[in-house]
Amino acid sequence: MAAASTEVSRSQECGCKGIRTCLICERQLQRDPPWQLTPQKKYHFLYCPDTGWAMGAEDSDFEGWAFPFPGVTLIKGFVTPEEEAEMVRLMDNDPWKLSQSGRRKQDYGPKVNFRKQKLRMAGFQGLPSFSQKVVQRMGLYPGLEDFQPVEQCNLDYSPERGSAIDPHLDDAWLWGERLVTLNLLSATVVSMASEAPGSLLLSSDPSVGPDTSKGNIMTPSRTVSCQEVEVAISVPCRSLLMLTGPARHQWTHAIHRRHIKARRVCITFRELSGAFLPGGQQEEVGQELLQAALSFQGRPV
Q1: In the chain, what is the straight-line distance between the N-terminal and C-terminal CA atoms, in Å?
Q2: pLDDT for the residue numbered 40
Q3: What is the C-alpha to C-alpha distance for residues 248 and 72, in angstroms, rounded to an integer?
């Protein structure tokens, strides 16, 4: 009964449901934010795009230690400030829907029930026209030459609303190998975590190299519990982030409230899984989705 009364009392300005909250409903309900109630990761590492390794944070127990972190591609300066301003202007011309945890959203894609593995077009007419140039430009970069997005989700984050997104793995029944996000208006941090059992094998920081001062080229090692590690990926404004492989399927990604310092708009593009591509069981459905998506004539659904 208490949970039901809580739902009724939520503000119309808040899109939160269940256990998720934002600053608006926390103030109204006098509720502690969930990140104060759940254990936080103990050990923090920073992703280095130059080496592809996760490096122990400065002044931490693991400073000078690192481990490979494959599956992350970061392309800085993917769009110009002028292109960024125009895309955000066009997005703001369409209505934003309230979403969970202080976010607002615009969806361009089919209506999907992931639990039942069912989908329907439901008015989906394609990605927006302004994304056509973005998708064409992606094809100029290694690893994205054949990327054909079939869904686009615009998310609007605000420090005034306490916006965030909980750690999660994107669906793999419908969505394919690559998750691609364009980050606009402000820099942020994507926080990666894993609930897998076991330990990570750490090596000395690869930017330092082996210790040869005494003729010893053996690389020392340490281990750390995987479940106690969080890897921070710094994502500059106007950059493109792609997650594949282990970063896509084995590590959850999240945006913590503390990392939203100003308005942030991101555009996430998703491709089809193999089941919806030629030769897959849902090939015909996939062709219909791709034909609609790549017409670039859509409005938010």
Answers
A1: 33
A2: 76
A3: 9
The CA distance from 297 to 299, in Å, is: 7
The structure's pTM equals 0.90
Q: Tell me the pairing of strands 104-108 and 151-157.
A: antiparallel
Distance CA 97, CA 110 (A): 16
Q: Which residue has the tokens 């934002």?
A: 22
The residue type found at 11 is S
292's tokens: 């609609």
pLDDT digits over 252-266, tens only?
999 999 999 999 999
Long-range Cβ contact pairs of 284-293 (< 8 A, separation 24 or more): 285/119, 286/150, 288/121, 289/110, 289/121, 289/124, 289/150, 290/148, 290/150, 292/121, 292/124, 292/125, 292/126, 293/108, 293/109, 293/124, 293/126, 293/127, 293/148, 293/149, 293/150, 293/151
Q: How many CB atoms lie within 10 A of CB 46?
A: 19
> What gap in Å lies between CA 149 and CA 109, rounded to an integer?
10
In this structure, the chain runs to a length of 301
Beta bridge partners of 264: 157
